[in-house]
């Protein structure tokens, strides 16, 4: 199986998300643990693009053009055409858990959302092409600075979230070229390759 998605597991090891809807946990001792068969059936055929485990141990997955949250006894799914809390159009390539426990997602070409981890409800919805500051939302990387500020590396440089204005702003000193990756070090400095 091909695994385009990987994320740390709260109980150790890592979660792996595969092209055919397969989600497995690679345990620290090397064992591979599968999800319940009924969950496997529900995800079958969906490409898992991104995966993250929240603080309550819900597993979130960007599955094709949808978002799936897997709990102990539940599986919730949100799609772009849902009447309540739809996800943005586009493939959900980036999922992150903020320090406050909320789940952030970025759908390439669609936009960014912040969701409540317990209910799955949308807390912030910024769409590509509107006044969100996202431009086309063509992201290479989405991550948090040590202070908790969301940053996006994209085709035009770097963008950071302005919480007061509730939008992303281009970082002028890093504008004009595609940024493929970035990392913050222990001294709160941003590094680009």
Helical proportion? under 10%
- Helix/sheet category: mainly beta
Query: Distance N terminus to C terminus?
Result: 30 Å
Name the shape in a single word. Answer: globular
Question: How would you sum up this structure, described in words?
Answer:
The chain is globular, with a radius of gyration of 16 Å. It has one helix at residues 37-43, and strands spanning 5-8, 14-17, 23-26, 32-34, 48-53, 59-63, 66-70, 75-78, 92-97, 103-107, 111-115, 122-127, 139-144, 150-154, 157-162, 167-175, 183-184, 190-191. The mean pLDDT is 92. With 193 residues, it is mostly beta strands. The strands form five sheets. The chain has a four-stranded antiparallel sheet, with no helix packed on it. The protein is 4% helix and 45% strand. The chain contains one helix and 18 strands. The two termini are 30 Å apart.
Write the layout of secondary structure elements.
Blueprint: E1 5-8, E2 14-17, E3 23-26, E4 32-34, H1 37-43, E5 48-53, E6 59-63, E7 66-70, E8 75-78, E9 92-97, E10 103-107, E11 111-115, E12 122-127, E13 139-144, E14 150-154, E15 157-162, E16 167-175, E17 183-184, E18 190-191
Antiparallel strand pairs: 1-2, 2-3, 3-4, 5-6, 6-7, 7-8, 9-10, 10-11, 11-12, 13-14, 14-15, 15-16, 17-18
